[in-house]
Design goal:
mainly beta, 8-stranded antiparallel sheet, 454 residues, elongated, hydrolase activity, Jelly Rolls, 5 helices, 29 strands, AL/BT2_dom, 2 domains
């Protein structure tokens, strides 16, 4: 609590969406075959491979890094990660190329990986391969939608290759093998449409349903769910494979029930009215010169200067969800909502911890102040959709373990897992220094701790 001492201190809709997308998907494939105009995305999709070069891609083999997982790569320092990416890119250039609008791998080398991570999405792609080749499509960095030689001569019938490609091969339970055989002969193009929502995956292969809304297991740690976000990867495994028409449509993650306000209050039990209790119990620290707390509204005003100024709590929180109404006004105003701040660094000048940034450029960015800096940026188009300038904005933040999610006015702006980030700490609000004028107001703050699962 804030203490103020002398310094004041989804059902039918989903089916409809999939049916509509399937029709668009089929029409796009047919049109491309007839006109020869490939690598042009259908409406609502974005191009992952532009048909010209490898822009937007990196090289990454998570299983070859010490620790053998995406988490191990995330735990690398920025310097170590940069060196790894540089090394991997040299390998990419040896084994991956672009020929006549086709993305070509010689069967060897590092896996081609999107530079961006994705959460829920629909992925379209064409591929063709050769005899005895083996490959796969990794979703959120996890193996895999299987691609292989399904003939007896391919030598993998003991591993059920005769059942066909398209299954979630690394699942130990449901979905390991495709529902039907749908592979085309060598030399012909095969088409995938893969939908991933939450932990579940649906795969259409050459127009046939081969995986039906199956939970994808986390190959790297089967005791935990699959990663909430991660890259798309193309596996290399012994034979030439070609890709084209690689498109993606991101599916927005909707606000959960606990993120909804009803009559100005969150739904469910266990919520604490934060500022109201802080005002009554006197718990936290602010500077009287810059901050006031009156009738449940915390207000900060700053005409600019060399230092930042903060209001922060004394109580620490680990996993939590929090609602807050925040309004920022002023010339070139800039601020930030901080959480999991190291109490040892909490002062009226500089602190270390997470920050959801607010300002002309970094609205909605997640930063690890005093750590690795920018963790996830928010696009200008998303900011325009989410933010009400000079007005009240509803922030809903969920921090559970390494997974950080933030919605502003119901629009998700942060969705990232960051193992290098802080695990617990205090909350803080910032008045940013510099040549600017900032007035920041916060009210209707409700917080609910999340119990750690054992």
């Amino acid at each position: 609590m804030l203490r103020f001492p002398s310094r004041i201190l989804f059902g039918c809709l989903l089916v409809g969406l999939l049916f509509t997308s399937s029709a668009i998907d089929a029409a796009t494939v047919d049109a491309a075959e007839k006109t020869g105009a490939h690598n042009i995305p259908p409406k609502g999709f974005k191009t992952l491979f532009n048909g010209k070069n490898l822009d937007g891609w990196i090289g990454m083999n998570f299983h070859k890094v010490k620790g053998k997982s995406p988490v191990a790569v995330q735990m690398l320092s920025p310097k170590e990660r940069k060196a790894l990416l540089k090394k991997n890119w040299e390998d990419v250039k040896k084994h991956w190329s672009v020929e006549k609008g086709e993305l070509v791998n010689d069967g060897h080398g590092v896996y081609l990986t999107t530079a961006r991570n994705y959460g829920d999405f629909e992925l379209l792609l064409d591929y063709k391969t050769v005899a005895k080749a083996d490959s796969g499509i990794y979703l959120r960095g996890v193996p895999q939608v299987q691609i292989w030689d399904t003939t007896k001569e391919g030598g993998k019938w003991k591993r059920k290759a005769n059942l066909g490609s398209g299954g979630l091969h690394n699942n130990e339970k449901k979905g390991k093998h495709p529902l039907v055989y749908a592979d085309k002969p060598f030399g012909e193009w095969n088409h995938f449409r893969i939908t991933m929502i939450g932990e579940n995956v649906t795969v259409y292969y050459n127009g046939k349903l081969v995986v039906d809304n199956v939970r994808m297991e986390n190959y790297f740690d089967r005791k935990r769910p699959i990663f909430p976000t991660g890259p798309i990867q193309f596996q290399t495994h012994g034979g030439e494979i070609r890709f084209r028409n690689v498109f993606i449509r991101e599916i927005p993650r909707k606000l959960p029930l606990s993120g909804i306000l009803k009559n100005g209050k969150p739904v469910g039990d266990g919520w604490v009215a934060f500022l109201q209790d802080a005002e009554n119990a006197q718990g936290g620290e602010i500077e009287k010169e810059f901050w006031t707390l009156k009738e449940g509204v915390l207000t900060g005003e700053y005409q600019g200067g060399k230092k930042h100024h903060y209001a922060y709590t004394t109580k620490e929180y680990g996993d939590f969800e929090i609602h807050a109404q925040i309004k920022m006004t002023g010339k070139d105003a800039n601020s930030g909502f901080h959480f999991r701040v190291d109490p040892k660094t909490a002062s009226f000048g500089k602190i270390s911890g997470y920050e959801v940034d607010m300002g002309a450029v970094p609205w909605g960015w997640l930063q690890h102040v005093g750590g690795d800096g920018n963790i996830q940026k928010c696009s200008k188009s998303l900011v325009k959709k989410a933010i009400k300038q000079n007005d009240w904005n509803h922030f809903y933040i969920v921090a559970k373990g390494d997974y950080i999610q933030t919605w502003i006015n119901g629009v998700k702006v942060i969705d990232v897992e960051n193992p290098r980030g802080p695990k617990k700490g205090v909350f803080a609000l910032q008045l940013c220094g510099g040549k600017r004028e900032t007035k920041l107001e916060m009210k209707e703050v409700y917080i609910r701790p999340i119990k750690t699962e054992k």
